[in-house]
Please model this.
Amino acid sequence: MNAAGDIKPNARPFYQRYNAEALKQALRRMYLIRRFEEGAEEAYMRGLIHGTMHLSIGQEASAVGSTMALRNTDYITSTHRGHGHCIGKGAEPKLMFAEFFGKEEGYCRGRGGSMHIADVATGNLGANGIVGGGIPIAVGAALAIKKQKRDDVAMCFFGDGATNEGAFHEALNMASIWKLPVVFVCENNKYGMSVSTERSMAVANVADRAAAYAMPSVIVDGNAIADVEEAIAEAIARARRGEGPTLVECKTYRTRGHSRSDRNRYRTKEEIEEWKGRDPIQSFETDLVAHGIATAEDVTAIRESAEAEIAAGIEFARTGTDPDPSEVTRDVYSPEAA
Model:
């Protein structure tokens, strides 16, 4: 890095595209995601959160790398494992925690919970408890973008299990026919609930399925933020040029179970430990220090800053406003319909 804080010209595109501050902010968002989910898990164990949750610990690089090149006017649709996507797109953890805790201050006024967080102000059209449910929604948003002659894009996150749903194939086919500005991002963490991709897919890779729809595809290491961002940036640029959709498959892993009720009997401890050794946050930290973008002290400060924000967010949610039971149907219908 030179005296002005710019990245060396011989660095890979990811490090050329962003200045040092933006790269350190990306690391901070990865830490926010990790600490948010660890904090949510702890709150659940203490009985402060009810229901269940689906954690993406280990998948932070794909969430942040995919959203770095997006604007507020770009859209995303997410999944039941979508906390990282929300934070990557700019959501405030304290408002997400308020939603978890069922408080009025939450993004959906406490009505949505973990699986249905949305933030229209930042272009987040919402997570979805239906496997594959966000895919056709993203295609619809992309169609609206095209009809309005905007150069924005819609990005759709989904897991490997969703690619066996009919909605996946219908949506990719339609997006390709109409050359819609949509980027399909599959976070392939090897398991749809407890079923491995080896047992559930007839092809070796999700990306292989794009050929049936005359759509370009790419496979990346989903635990390497630079690999993810570079592939996504190219797909976004292609969509903005009006050249249609791309399917990006991020090979990654969730180190926690499918949900809080998952007893993890379908995979070995050795497999989990192996993937923990490929931790995306630690890898990014190492790269930032190696490139002279951050010091060890910078990394510590980033980590502590994220931890402080998460602690404050939990307290904000804990002391939030409980909904009035008499207003249980509020926001279910429009004022006109009511």
